[in-house]
Write a structure and sequence with these properties.
single chain, 599 residues, alpha+beta, Nucleotidyltransferase, domain 5, six-stranded mixed β-sheet, 20 strands, 44% helix, 18% strand, disordered N terminus
């Protein structure tokens, strides 16, 4: 197991994700040149290498870019805020310099008697609690309004003390008279009760609305049980307001400091572990490590290896780790495996970045070596379907008929999990009368593999039958007649629940709906259906054309076939003169056709 080198710049651009996020440009000596945000990382970063910029600064920047790092995020707002914190930390040469925290507003809970909640652009080390920064004053104002409306927090600027509560020195604010404040300055609210409200406000600003809503629901039910319906309805409105609250972002959270975040995304041959470092309430660094698995190591082993390999540098300032599962490391770090809240959101951002790198790696493998990608997919199919060998050659059968008329079947052939259309085959059902799918399937499978055996051609490693147990049993009968049932794997797929049936098994196999194996099987099934339906329609169309020509007394089947082969349709035949018809079928029959269409 070893960490591998990064891909080169051109290839990295090809496989960048089309998600919101932040990108960082580095020079050849690994100094950060520029930090930017994007709604679509791939489009934005690609633009630096496609356009001829009039701006000298941008041209100069583009010429110095040696490598790129990206952090994928959930929203444009997340990217907006993270870009800001990274610029302040790294002060890149080509960015506008941001030297303090006055750029964005914060929500402050003052450390005082009956603490106020207000917004400020200046974050001070004065014991107060700060939440943010937020992307706009408008957003902050709407949050504070929501807090005032639902939690009855005081909005006056009185400097309160226990000695002065209830004195004439303080005048009650307008909010007292309209019910938004219960009169803290007049001593009408206990400190204990007010602090309970404040605790709920902090929970909401931290994104934990679940507990607050739970408390409100309990209070609402209690009020309704005592017939206080007006008060219960007021609580109901507060619950709805909280459910609509979606202003919290996990990218910048002042309550999280000195944390390392790790998450893993597994491929077949490689694992990708993303590491985030969260300092002073911000993601300040991200890296993704690519690990080649040698002995099918589990995720605990891989994560432990990455932590140990990065302790000295990346995690040097970190005291706690946020992980997808407990590692029980002896490094002295606290370990958190969160189930919800901000830590869980950070864990999901880390997972997203690991997944993006894994997808980029696999896309790059396709670009560089299509054969390796095909081998990986075939290995997946072999493992998922419990096959004895890699299914380089697969074939799928489907029947088509309408009320028993014009019964046909189709066989599609896939080589290395890709369609090989030259080897597709149509079948007209010859021995079955009426709509009998089971007998039709038995016939076409027998005919297909009898011919392959006679011509000494290679049999497929896997046969897929479009249908459930009945069609599968019928196909198996034919393989047994030919004595090849032990040489070829065969399965059936039932459309309704996408069940995979094996010969002799009572219960079907259910593959994950997102699995690559199921997608290949579905593609083959759909391709066989399309190919069969096309043949069915052509046959039916030709039959209808023939039936019209068959009305001409004296015109036999051979003449009809000659005409259709040469001229394709009845309309074309109608336009022919006697001389053209005579060349093909003789004067007498030409006269019969002209006479029929003129009358």
């Amino acid at each position: 197991m070893a960490a591998e080198n990064k891909i080169d710049l051109k290839d990295q651009i090809k496989v960048l994700p089309q998600t919101p996020g932040v990108y960082q440009f580095y020079s050849i000596d690994q100094k950060i040149l520029y930090v930017g945000k994007a709604i679509n990382l791939k489009k934005r970063v690609s633009s630096y290498f496609k356009n001829q910029f009039d701006n000298r600064k941008t041209r100069l920047l583009s010429s110095k870019i040696h490598s790129i790092k990206t952090i994928s995020l959930n929203t444009e707002m997340d990217a907006f805020l993270l870009e800001n914190s990274l610029i302040k930390k790294h002060q890149p040469k080509y960015n506008i310099q941001l030297k303090d925290d006055k750029t964005y507003p914060w929500i402050c809970i003052k450390k005082e008697l009956y603490p106020r909640v207000f917004y400020t652009r200046k974050k001070e080390n004065n014991g107060a609690k700060y939440f943010g920064p937020y992307s706009s004053v408008k957003l902050v104002n709407s949050l504070i309004e929501m807090i005032k409306e639902n939690f009855e927090i005081r909005s006056c600027d009185h400097i309160l003390s226990e000695e002065k509560l209830g004195s004439d020195e303080f005048q009650t604010a307008v909010d007292f008279y309209i019910g938004n404040c219960k009169g803290c300055c007049q001593g009408k609210v206990s400190i204990e009760k007010y602090n309970k409200r404040l605790l709920q406000v902090k929970q909401v600003l931290n994104g934990n609305t679940y507990e607050v809503i739970k408390q409100f629901k309990s209070k609402m039910l209690s009020l309704s049980e005592t017939y206080q319906y007006e008060e219960a309805n007021a609580i109901k409105k507060k619950i709805q307001n909280l459910k609509n609250f979606q202003a919290k972002t996990a990218v910048v959270d002042t309550n999280i400091h000195g944390f390392g975040v790790l998450n893993i995304d597994d491929g077949i041959t490689h694992s990708f572990v993303n590491c985030l470092k969260v300092m002073n309430g911000s993601i300040v660094q991200s890296k993704t490590v690519q690990i080649k698995k040698k002995f099918d190591e589990d995720s605990v082993t891989i994560l432990s290896f990455v932590v140990a390999d990065n302790l000295a540098e990346f995690f040097s300032e970190v005291h706690s780790l946020i992980l997808p599962q407990k590692l029980s490391l002896s490094t002295g770090h606290n370990e958190y495996v969160p189930s919800r809240g901000d830590k869980k959101k950070l864990l999901m951002i880390s997972k997203k970045n690991a997944m993006v790198k894994r997808q980029g790696f696999e896309k790059l493998e396709i670009i560089k070596n299509p054969e390796l990608t095909s081998l990986r997919l075939l290995t997946t199919i072999k493992n998922d379907l419990r096959l004895k060998e890699l299914p380089h050659h697969m074939e799928c059968f489907d029947n088509s008929n309408i009320q028993g008329e014009f019964p046909v079947a189709a066989c599609v052939v896939f080589k290395d999990a890709k369609p090989n259309k030259k080897e597709y085959r149509h079948f007209n059902i010859k021995t079955v009368e009426g709509p009998d799918d089971f007998a039709s399937m038995e016939e076409v499978v027998f005919r297909r593999y009898k011919r392959l055996s006679e011509e000494n051609k290679q049999l497929p490693q896997l046969i897929i039958i479009d249908g459930g147990k009945g069609q599968l049993s019928s196909a198996l009968k034919s393989l047994k007649k030919l004595d090849i049932h032990n040489e070829v794997a065969i399965i059936g797929i039932a459309k309704k629940l996408e069940e995979i049936y094996y010969p002799g098994d009572m219960y079907p196999l259910y593959l994950d709906k997102k699995s690559e194996t199921l997608k290949v099987i579905q593609l083959m099934r759909n391709e066989a259906h399309r190919f069969g339906i096309t043949h069915h329609r052509n046959k039916r169309s030709k039959s209808l054309i023939k039936s019209e020509l068959q009305q001409i007394v004296g015109l036999g089947p051979k003449s009809i076939d000659l005409l259709l082969k040469k001229h394709k349709s009845v309309n074309n035949i109608k336009k022919l003169n006697k001389e053209d018809l005579s060349i093909l079928i003789g004067n007498h029959k030409a006269d019969l056709i002209i006479k029929y269409f003129l009358t």
